[in-house]
Amino acid sequence: xxxxxxxxxxxxxxxxxxxxxxxxxxxxxxxxxxxxxxxxxxxxxxxxxxxxxxxxxxxxxxxxxxxxxxxxxxxxxxxxxxxxxxxxxxxxxxxxxxxxxxx
Length: 103
Description:
Layout: H1 2-11, E1 20-32, E2 37-45, E3 52-59, E4 75-88, E5 91-102
Parallel strand pairs: 3-5
Antiparallel strand pairs: 1-2, 1-4, 2-3, 4-5
């Protein structure tokens, strides 16, 4: 059920923009060498653990990476506001902004 809700948020983000989101999953991070930007995510697996879906998040209070972050795969809870960040020409990605992260 939770996996399908996150899937809906990713495929139809406009329905959720501005809503407060609480999500439990695994910590993930990715560094985009082209933009030299680090992204953080919370990933949830489906019931059979064969597929996963996640949302990027941006913390309300910045932390130093990697010393103030959990390791990849650590269980976390994220609470923040769902937004859709546009990159160009309507293309973009869903993200949880002003997030608090708990282990």
